[in-house]
């Protein structure tokens, strides 16, 4: 049995992103949403995700932009975010172990929650669910 190591470099980020999105693309629940939105732009999406996670986890500032706007009008609900998180966590746990691996899961969870609430906010005409 191979001992898992932590995320250390861009090659590890690429392994994480490629493995994760291979699973996402094939998933019955979230695959259709991603495949419809991204279409034939997967190579550029993956490159953007490499830079995003490289910036977040390795503090090598290669990503610029705002990650939320492309997600604003996606036809997703809480179960889509839950499934995204399940796949992400499973991918990390199968590939890595260590402080940055744990940081990746925490950052992903925070992002999933924030995106869900922001999408709901826009769907409700600028009102959150706590308002009557």
Molecular structure report:
The mean pLDDT is 91. The relative contact order is 0.16. This protein is 64% helix and 0% strand. The chain has one domain (10-123): Globin-like. With 132 residues, it is mainly α. Helix 1 (10-26) crosses helix 4 (78-95), helix 3 crosses helix 5 (99-123) and helix 4 (78-95) packs antiparallel against helix 5.
Label the structural class: mainly alpha
Low-confidence stretches: none
CATH hierarchy, class: Mainly Alpha
> Helix-strand pattern, N to C?
HHHHH
Q: What number of structural domains do the residues give?
A: 1
What spatial form do the alpha-carbon principal axes imply?
Answer: globular
- Kindly provide the radius of gyration, computed on alpha-carbon positions and rounded to a whole number of angstroms: 15 Å
Q: What's the main sheet like?
A: none
Keywords: Heme, Iron, Metal-binding, Transport
Protein name: Group III truncated hemoglobin
GO molecular function: heme binding; metal ion binding; oxygen binding
Binding site for heme: 45
């Amino acid at each position: 049995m191979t001992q898992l190591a932590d995320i250390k470099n861009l090659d590890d980020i690429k392994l994480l992103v490629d493995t994760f999105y291979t699973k996402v693309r094939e998933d019955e629940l979230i695959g259709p949403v991603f495949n419809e939105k991204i279409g034939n732009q997967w190579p550029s999406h993956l490159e953007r995700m490499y830079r995003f996670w490289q910036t977040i986890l390795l503090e090598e500032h290669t990503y610029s932009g705002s990650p939320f706007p492309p997600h604003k009008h996606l036809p997703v609900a809480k179960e889509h975010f839950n499934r995204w998180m399940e796949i992400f966590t499973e991918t990390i746990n199968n590939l890595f172990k260590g402080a940055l691996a744990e940081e990746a899961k925490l950052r992903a969870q925070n992002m999933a929650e924030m995106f869900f609430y922001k999408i709901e906010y826009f769907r409700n005409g600028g009102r959150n669910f706590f308002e009557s």
